[in-house]
Amino acid sequence: MTCSEFDLIRHFFAGQCIQRVDVPLGIGDDAALLAPPPGRLLAVSVDTLIAGVHFPLDTAARAVGYKSLAVNLSDLAAMGAEPAWVTLALSLPEPDEAWLTGFAQGFFDLASTHSVQLVGGDTTRGPLSITVQVTGFVSQEQALLRNGAQPGDGVFLTGTVGDAGLGLRLYQQPSDASDASNDATMHLVHRLEFPTPRVAAGLALRGCASSAIDVSDGLAADLGHVLTASGVGADIHVDQLPLSSAYRLLASKNDWQTAVSTGDDYELCFTLPAGQETAVLAGLDCTCTRIGEISADSGLRWRDADGQQLALDNTGFDHFTFGKPQ
Ligand code: ADP
Ligand code: MG
């Protein structure tokens, strides 16, 4: 396809169906003009996905488009913010029409689900890389932060963990398999490529959860950030971790370490003061599991069903720590 940068933007990105009333001027001028709601704060988050680093080079374009927005919506969910606007900076090796069509489909399907409007961006030629910035609204009193966990609070997880990490491993090392394990593998790879940002759960936790984070780098690493920010510790019961049936089928027996040390699940991990569990969990639109409790003793301790402490060999993905497996 030969087209100018402007044709490409018009064709693939300017004709979206979401038109919000708080966007007086969207794509097309030098900057968008936006009307934030009075009395609320803007929650802003940005994430870059680089081909070959954040997703395998042969990932379907629709999955790349979906996930580039999903990971950002997940950050807003973890703040208890209501998503509204998004910008998109695309670096493309060439204007590949089929790829752009798939990318836009994945991106706008999810944008429509959450009534998020693409209000601007930038398009350049270069190695495939996607930077998405989202903006949402939250009131100062209700924002979910990492630093409020208190001794005695319960630790909770939405959905299941470990699916994306195991899915990536199976995607990279396919094995000949039975029909049952093929279905399970497909489920895990789908979780890797199309994670569900827990936007409604984040909104429901506003004013209730004492802390929250989304699990992007693995439960061990991300819960560790909450503990550090809050100045507390936690005991997590590995037999209570929510694991999908696909994970249970395809992971090695009793493999809890993959589930807590691999990332990309985009579930919410949050803490709740004792006594609030029943009411809060009833208000969530997804499954949610209590996995442990916060303590005054610093550190993150993994425990088996008998309460014995277990050692974790690796803790999660960090771009700037060399020698760690991704
Ligand atoms: P400028 O040169 O003034 O920065 P651009 O030529 O980069 O403007 O972009 C023209 C318009 O198209 C702007 O409104 C910009 O926000 C929008 N735009 C550019 N690339 C994208 C994209 N990938 N997605 C959405 N909007 C885009
Ligand atoms: Mg520009």
What does this structure look like?
By secondary structure, the protein is α+β, with helices and mostly antiparallel strands. It folds into two domains: 5-138, PurM-like, N-terminal domain (60s Ribosomal Protein L30, Chain: A, 2-Layer Sandwich); 154-310, Alpha-Beta Complex (Phosphoribosyl-aminoimidazole Synthetase, Chain A, domain 2), CATH 3.90.650.10. 33% of the residues lie in helices and 23% in strands. It is built from ten helices and eleven strands. The protein has helices at 5-14, 61-79, 97-113, 163-172, 179-193, 199-204, 219-230, 245-250, 257-261, 277-282; strands at 41-50, 82-92, 117-125, 129-138, 154-158, 211-214, 233-237, 268-272, 288-295, 299-303, 309-310. A seven-stranded mixed β-sheet has the order 6-8-5-9-7-10-11, sandwiched between helices. Strand 10 and strand 11 form a beta hairpin. The chain is globular. It starts with a helix and ends in a 16-residue tail after the last strand. 42% of the residues are buried. It binds adenosine-5'-diphosphate (ADP) and magnesium ion. Adenosine-5'-diphosphate is lined by residues 9, 13, 27-30, 88, 90, 118, 120-123.
